[in-house]
Amino acid sequence: MKRILEIILPISAIFSLGIGIWQMLQTKTMILPSWFLVAISLPGTLLLSFAFGFILKKLLNSKWQTSIFTSIFVIIFCSIFYISEHKPVYIIIVPKNYVGEVRLFLSNKNDFSINEYGIGYIDRRTFNDGFYPKIIQTGNDITKQIKEYGKGASATTSEDAYSFNHLSFHILDSGKKVDGKDIEELIRIKAIDTARLYKK
């Protein structure tokens, strides 16, 4: 039994680590690239797993190798990460031929049908918890063309009733970013329905 576990646990740990790395690389971070998340998390996970494994071995006064206990903690940490990253997938519909910045403004209800000015709405829970976007334009899935996602906000005062916090990403035009209208102008031309914005 011991011999079987000595084979199965390290293999399971390597498999879990591989799944964890893959999951991290699929995660679109708000500021840093996905590979940076892997570069930081991987050494930390291995070091913590080794430290906890070593301590547990000493506490149990076990004759099993430290690598066995390390493998157990690698599996645990990777499983926790995988479960925590399990988020809903929402489809974002972008108008045909639209290029430029897409903004999802904080609202009381999700509405991922983007208007001609690149405006959509996202509720507070989805905004805070995150989600995996599936971006559709002219019936085609263009999700992989999106390089990064970001969070933004317009400067407001205490007298402003609404929050202008938003998530955003760019749909490139031949590989280049296209500058769009600022939020004040979008409000002026009624591209943003302020009645749908989240009240502070």
TrEMBL record:
What domain of life is recorded for the organism? Bacteria
Q: Which organism is it from?
A: Pedobacter suwonensis
Tell me what this protein is called: Uncharacterized protein
Q: Which UniProt keywords apply?
A: Membrane, Transmembrane, Transmembrane helix
Q: Where does the sequence pass through the membrane?
A: 7-25, 31-56, 68-84
